[in-house]
Amino acid sequence: MTPVMPSLITWKDEYSVGIPILDSQHKHLITLINALNDAMKSGRGKDVLGEILAETVKYTKTHFLCEEQLMRMHSYPDLTAHLAEHQALTAKALDLQKSFATGAMTLSVGVMEFLSDWLRNNILGSDMKYSPFLRRKVAK
């Protein structure tokens, strides 16, 4: 029997921003990062890792656009600051993807910890700032 590897990130109720579409997207990002971690730990090839990393970066952009649309639709007062965070995080993710694709960087435990910390900190930090505001607006 093959041992089951523990997930890098496990969804917790404290990660919920209270908006079902965004919580669902956060859960999917957790699934992608866990899949990337599992592939790295099992020694899967660079092509497989590259595909999963590309999907993670692509889905992150999709998620950010969804958040931004909700913020614009409901005139979120800190939209500019949140957009700047998204731009910085997207740039970091693209740099990571480029470095991996060119062989300048390999996926390591440190990189995976960075990704998991980034996701948790993004949800628990900046996303929790908009949560009360958007929950009130979306519930109307």
Look at the structure and give the CATH class.
Mainly Alpha
Largest sheet: none
Number of domains: 1
DSSP strand (E) fraction? under 5%
**Count of discrete alpha- or pi-helical segments spanning 4 or more residues:** 4
CATH topology: Four Helix Bundle (Hemerythrin (Met), subunit A)
Structural class: mainly alpha
Low-confidence stretches: none
Which overall shape is indicated by the principal axes computed on the Cα atoms? globular
List key phrases describing it.
140 residues, Four Helix Bundle (Hemerythrin (Met), subunit A), single chain, mainly alpha, 4 helices
Gist of the model:
With 140 residues, the chain is mostly helical. It has four helices and no strands.
Characterize the structure shown.
The chain is an all-alpha fold and 140 residues long. It has one domain (19-139): Hemerythrin-like (Four Helix Bundle (Hemerythrin (Met), subunit A), Up-down Bundle), CATH 1.20.120. 74% of the residues lie in helices and 0% in strands. The chain contains 4 helices and no strands. It has helices at residues 20-41, 46-73, 79-101, 109-139. Helix 1 packs antiparallel against helix 4 and helix 2 runs antiparallel to helix 3. The radius of gyration is 16 Å and the shape is globular. The termini are far apart. The model has no long low-confidence stretch (mean pLDDT 87).
